[in-house]
Task: inverse folding
């Protein structure tokens, strides 16, 4: 069985992090004699967290103001770009025009247009889209992991001020999740425009 780097990042690493956090919280401690067992357990924990992060995706989108693809494909009157401050897309109108033309639907919504762009760009083995997708997925799983660990640690140690320090990496991972989502959506649209 071989693992792709996405599997390693989104499953084993976050699973190991969550497992170690659980061992520390429950005061069981880490035993080096069980390293192989920890890796196997980390894969299972990471797999579950990955599934939870997929279920929470719509909630995460709500916290960042909507799906990045929707925002990038919604022109703003008076602005030459769409997106957020750090991730701007300057070709929204061109992309919308080409996507709707290819779909033969002048009123196609953002989801339908982005779905077409994804379908076309995922088939290109030379594009950077899969890397951006893996980075986005890892950011989402890491955010979910930190969210779960933060809740558990604060629940176990509500009077310990150090528990609340976990909110800082949680907020940083939320910001990174938002940016990675926009980077991925922008890369899909740019790749689509490069093909057409």
Result:
């Amino acid at each position: 069985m071989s693992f792709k780097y996405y599997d390693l990042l989104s499953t084993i690493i976050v699973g190991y992090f969550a497992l170690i956090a659980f061992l520390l919280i429950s005061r069981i401690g880490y035993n080096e004699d069980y390293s192989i067992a920890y890796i196997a357990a980390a894969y299972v924990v990471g797999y579950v967290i990955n599934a939870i992060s997929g279920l929470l995706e719509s909630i995460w989108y709500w916290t960042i103001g909507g799906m990045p693809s929707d925002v990038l494909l919604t022109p703003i009157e008076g602005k030459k770009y769409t997106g957020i401050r750090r991730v701007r897309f300057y070709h929204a109108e061109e992309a919308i025009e080409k996507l709707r033309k290819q779909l033969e639907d002048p009123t196609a919504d953002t989801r339908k247009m982005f779905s077409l762009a994804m379908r076309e760009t995922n088939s290109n083995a030379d594009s950077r889209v899969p890397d951006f997708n893996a980075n986005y997925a890892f950011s989402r799983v890491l955010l979910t992991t930190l969210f779960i660990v933060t809740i558990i640690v604060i629940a176990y140690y509500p009077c310990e001020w150090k528990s609340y320090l976990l909110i800082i990496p949680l907020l940083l991972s939320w910001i990174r999740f938002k940016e990675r989502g926009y980077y991925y959506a922008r890369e899909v649209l740019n790749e689509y425009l490069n093909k057409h």
Notes: The radius of gyration is 20 Å.
